[in-house]
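Dear colleagues,

For the upcoming journal club I promised to circulate an example of a predicted protein-ligand complex. I picked one with flavin-adenine dinucleotide because it came up in last month's discussion. The inputs are reproduced below in full, followed by the predicted structure.
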Amino acid sequence: MNREPEVLSKTKFDLAVIGGGVNGSAILLPIYAGDPDSPLKIRLGLTLYDLFGGLGKKDRHRMLSVSDAVRRVPRLKREGLRKAAVYYDSLTDDARLTLEYALDAAARGAVVVNYTEVRALDVSTSQVTGGASALGPGAQGYGPGGAPEVVRAEAVDKLSGKSQEISARFWVNATGPWVDHLRALLPGYDGSKTVRLTKGTHIILPSLSGPYAILAPIPSDGRVFVLMPWHRCSLLGTTDTDYDGDPATVRPEPADVEYLIAAVNRVLARPVEAGEVVGAFAGLRALAVEPGRPGEGSPSPSENTREYRFHEDPWAGNFISVCGGKITTARSLGESLVARIAPRLGIALRGPSSRHEVLPGGQTGPFEVYVDYASWEAVRMFKVPIEIAERIVRTYGSRWREILEPVRDDASLAEVLPGTPSLLAAEVEFAIRSEMAVSVEDFLLRRSGLGWLSRWKLRGAVPRVAEIFASRLGWSAERRIAEADSFARSTA
Ligand SMILES: Cc1cc2nc3c(=O)[nH]c(=O)nc-3n(C[C@H](O)[C@H](O)[C@H](O)COP(=O)(O)OP(=O)(O)OC[C@H]3O[C@@H](n4cnc5c(N)ncnc54)[C@H](O)[C@@H]3O)c2cc1C
């Protein structure tokens, strides 16, 4: 996968998408006196979950006695505990999953460009005046008399600062929290909102529950928190509060951290203190505004629908905005979107649904069995320590050989990056070669799989990572310094 900005101006695309950015975990659900749901109700709910999930016998939920629950998670508060349940759910690395979609799209012929921002949209009114449709011969505009159509976007390559034009027959606005910012570029935009932004903060704590995730209610507001095992720490989330600032500057606030600590302390025998927080980060959910419920009658953030919606504006006939959605529904969203757009581009869809298509690193079969086998294979073939081999297999799945193969010719690539527990120089090289990484941050925060961990811990690796980028991409000494400064700023 390469950045191919020069292709942008030379091609007229059928479809331009702007934006777009598992394995199991045992979840322990403690049930305390005064909780909203009784053990019986939880048991019924989890039985339905097992049935609808089609889970095999060993993956079904189990109810635990108080002693059994406390034996599994010793930090759990015993006082008031009535029972607990254990059930299983999936866990994913969101940055890597999203990257795998982009890699797959590129492998199937899409032109994928990062660091490219659409700043203006050119609309043709030719249809309204009876001229040719931007959709080409035979394709009609939408709405009575045909609507104006977007014919061109002006985009800026944020790395070089150069502007370029992109033309396409149809446009998908998949810019998440920025969806209404992009709609605002359309002449005729009426100021309406299609998404509601809510902030979700996570905090990282020293490990509190070993291999178990804990899910428990927050009685003060009727929500739940989840505490997840994550790279030998615990990840605790999340908040859900309305946000109306600049999406690019969302940050965790002290009140978010206090809220999460209070929530988890309700179930802990020894409370967590603010000083134990290792790190915190925040993101924005772009929730679809429910038609008929905007403004005064809005539900609370957590009651707002998590379903996705496609929105079309009458002043842009070939432009669809994707509002809402989740990582878990991304594939079904993509499929519905394609089904909706294809006929309008005159494309007949072939074959069955793509839901069984496997992403590039996903050729593993049963994952844990694969990790076990492939990790030892990596040790045998490339003489890397088992813990490094296992992390590489877990991160890159069936593509692990592509990362390690160059080590045969260049032993320096087998070196662990200073300041990191187990990242190899070979991974930086791979990210540049095959995963479109163009900056130190790209690698450390968005490719390595450790970006979530605690960013300050990765700072020691910056000089060596910058050195590898410099040798592959011809960076100057100034660029290396600028990269280090930029990493320090974004992880402050
Ligand atoms: C705290 C939190 C917890 C969550 N938990 C879960 C969960 O447990 N399960 C789940 O399934 N989902 C979860 N989600 C939701 C999930 O993260 C989102 O649904 C998903 O990230 C949305 O992806 P997207 O591609 O629509 O938007 P984004 O990931 O926001 O991507 C939009 C992209 O558009 C780009 N962009 C913006 N403007 C422009 C422009 N002018 N030109 C070009 N590009 C532009 C941005 O740079 C960005 O890369 C959670 C979200 C949050 C915040």
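Two points we might discuss: Residues 234 and 433 are 33 Å apart (CA to CA). Residues 18-21, 94, 117-118, 174-178, 182, 200, 238, 283-285, 325-328 surround flavin-adenine dinucleotide (CB under 6 Å).

See you all on Thursday,
B. R.
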